[in-house]
Amino acid sequence: MKVEQIYTGCLAEAAYYIESEGEAVVIDPLRESQPYIERAARDNAKIKYVFETHFHADFVSGHIDLAQKTGATIVFGPTAKPSYEAYIAQDNDEFQIGKVRIRLLHTPGHTLESSCYLLIDEHGEEVALFSGDTLFINDVGRPDLAQHVIADLTQEKLASYLFDSLRNKIMPLNDNIIIYPNHGAGSACGKNMSKETTDTLGHQKKVNYALDTSLTKEQFIKEVLTGLVPPPGYFPFNVLMNLRGYESLDKVIDRGTRALSVLEFEVAMHETEALVLDVRKAETFAKGFVPGAINIGLEGQFATWVGTLIPDLKQPILLISDTGKEEEAVLRMARVGYDNCIGFLKGGFEAWKQADKETDKIETISAETFAELWKNHKKELDVIDVRKKSEHDAEHIIGSENMPLDFLNNYMAQFKPDKIYYLHCAGGYRSMIAASILKARGVKHLIDVTGGFSAIKATNKVGISEYICPTTLL
């Protein structure tokens, strides 16, 4: 028996490959099916089932393409009603894979159809639980997402179901069972996930707040709902794609990787009202870019930020990238449902420059230069911190204003076209995204602080305000 976790860091997503005696299953695959097909081929194995733990919100699963290419059966838990052929299992149904069995446990709470898959080895021992978004390491799946798709559901009702699922289905299992969740730290499907991607159930019972046996159902509901921030806007649309089906990834990539000359690219910009997405590194983008382009660098959590900042999944997108990175960009957008990339600029930004087309740039300064400016003119500087509120609350530059990148659109009216703004995030990735959006919206004077807050703090020349937890009065 082989069990392999296939983890994709930029989405904080874990898919799983299980093989026994030439039969294999894949659990919660990403959009691209070829890596799973190649993995099974190395074992001379046939993919028999594609198990889905639920209708995912944060990515488009590859279950449909994978099933079509391999003949595998798609399996969902009870209550699932996909618009394509799939086997809807009942609670405790078992599936034979070689010498091992996999038992479906219906665990509603994150969603109604949420299910876990219990792996039973050839000796009849329960050895692992593929827990989907029901149980994470140090956290549980947020119960507020399905209500954005099913109107009569409430987060309180789903949290109540989640409590019952954890107490009645998962916690009675053996402590030595290995937990394999669908996500790790960085995913928006939970609020406090660990960087670890596996653990034993016994250890989770000791450290995971949601498995605290002293919590009543009412206390659990309050605890699990406290501190949730609004999910990215693309989540409900990904759920619908996973439920209804989607275009083949092969067609999406063929369309998105069409090479366009400078003239063709320029015509497409004007005729399609496409968004120009520049995926080069922040420091490269700052030195020169096509006017109006938005920068979201491939080296960061690219797909998540595309989904967070581009509200329309059907938005036509024209791509500018480093040579050879075009297909990667199209693929990573497709993972979160952005299938309408219509081509890329052949030769990249250099071709645009050589054609003597208009260019733009973002001014940058070092953390040291910023520190000197702050020291001498702090009352006059408009410093915008685009980190999350929790990051800003923990520590921030005295006098800075927090405008989280996630919600930048909510602050647009506060920016004046002719004022000078100094932008920073933690390290420079998010602040350049913000600068590109603001520049495209007509804010002219933007200065990005290279290295972000960490570099500024390291100068020891800038006043930092730290949050101090108030002492409880007894």
Automatic annotation (TrEMBL):
Residues 270-361, 377-465 form the Rhodanese domain. InterPro entries: Metallo-B-lactamas, Mito_Persulfide_Diox, POD-like_MBL-fold, Rhodanese-like_dom, Rhodanese-like_dom_sf, RibonucZ/Hydroxyglut_hydro. Keywords: Metal-binding. It comes from the Bacteria. It holds the Pfam family Lactamase_B. CDD domains: POD-like_MBL-fold, RHOD. This is Rhodanese-like domain-containing protein. The lineage of its organism: Bacteria, Pseudomonadati, Bacteroidota, Cytophagia, Cytophagales.
